[in-house]
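pinging the channel bc i need a second pair of eyes. not urgent but kinda urgent?? the chain im working w is below, pasted from the shared doc
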Amino acid sequence: MSVFQKLVCRFKHPISMPEDVGKDLGVQVLYNEVSFQECIDHLTDSHYRPKNLVRFMSRKKAESQFKSAVRKEIFAKRSLFSYYIYQGWLSFELVFDSSDQLRRVYMQHRNLDSPDLGVEIPLKS
């Protein structure tokens, strides 16, 4: 990627970039040039399941994957990691069971059909 392309990408994504999300989740197909819809499609496609998150992994290990997140909020049975991208907050809600093992991951963004509930990200077992 040329210096000019990097500058254009940084102008388009001044805080977080799609590659930041891809690196944290282990989704290799998220490049800085992808559109919002392409990003959502990749993250919800079962063929591109996150490599860094696995169902039943420990809470400590799951939370440690979100190195590039701008906001990190930890609650009793869930955690929220957010990136400012695509003119809004793209957040990942991690849901844990009573043994602090990862059960589900939901993606939330104001441009999704159900921004409050989010869209579930398929995980490997």
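so The longest strand covers residues 88-96. and DSSP finds four helices and five strands in the chain. — does that match what u expected or am i reading it wrong
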